[in-house]
Model the fold of this input.
Amino acid sequence: MDRGKRKCLVCGKEYTYCPQCGHGDASETWRYLYDDEKCKQIFRVVSDYAFKHIDKKTAKGRLEALNLKGMMFTEDIGKQISEILAYKEKEKIVNED
Done:
């Protein structure tokens, strides 16, 4: 890979980030892994769910709030996102006796 060339862990997009070369702000060290803030947020939600810091319902709500429509994902992240978004809250059965 050329110096500063990166591949986003979330969407797989190739981008350039190398603060030493003048490609990017050195204060945005998260850009070593993600091409933009949205991918960083998506990874955080998926990671928090995987490590059981949040439940599936919470993860789904956070992902839906990020508006993922039209986004492409790496295979691993895509599988985790699909699992989270498939969550359906169980309906409570009310006994009317």
Q: What stands out?
A: The mean pLDDT is 91. Residues 5-78 form one domain. The chain has one domain: 5-78.
